[in-house]
Design brief:
With 79 residues, the protein is of the alpha+beta class. Helices cover 48% and strands 19% of the residues. The chain has three helices and two strands, in the order E-E-H-H-H. A two-stranded antiparallel ribbon has the order 1-2. Helix 1 runs antiparallel to helix 2 and helix 2 packs antiparallel against helix 3. The mean pLDDT is 94.
Length: 79
């Protein structure tokens, strides 16, 4: 069962000129795995992803960690 959050977190994609509005934990996990850089906030978001998928972490808390990781890795785009 997909775990959703709102508002979307907009991130760069591997396709130039395209952005993705992420609203699901599983989609966030897929995007995290594509990012070339993996700093401390990336690691926190990756670990939190599993907890959020299992329902052990509120999706709104995971969303903030994912957004922080996207900002740290320069993948975050404006709304």
């Amino acid at each position: 069962m997909p775990r959703w959050f709102a508002p979307p977190v907009y991130v760069r994609t591997d396709r130039p000129g395209f952005r993705l509005g992420v609203t699901r934990v599983d989609t966030a996990a897929e995007e995290l795995l594509k990012w070339p850089n993996r700093g401390p906030r990336w690691r926190l978001a990756a670990e939190a992803c599993l907890s959020a998928m299992d329902g052990k972490m509120p999706t709104n808390k995971f969303r903030l960690l994912f957004e922080d990781a996207a900002q740290e890795e320069e993948m975050l785009l404006p709304d």
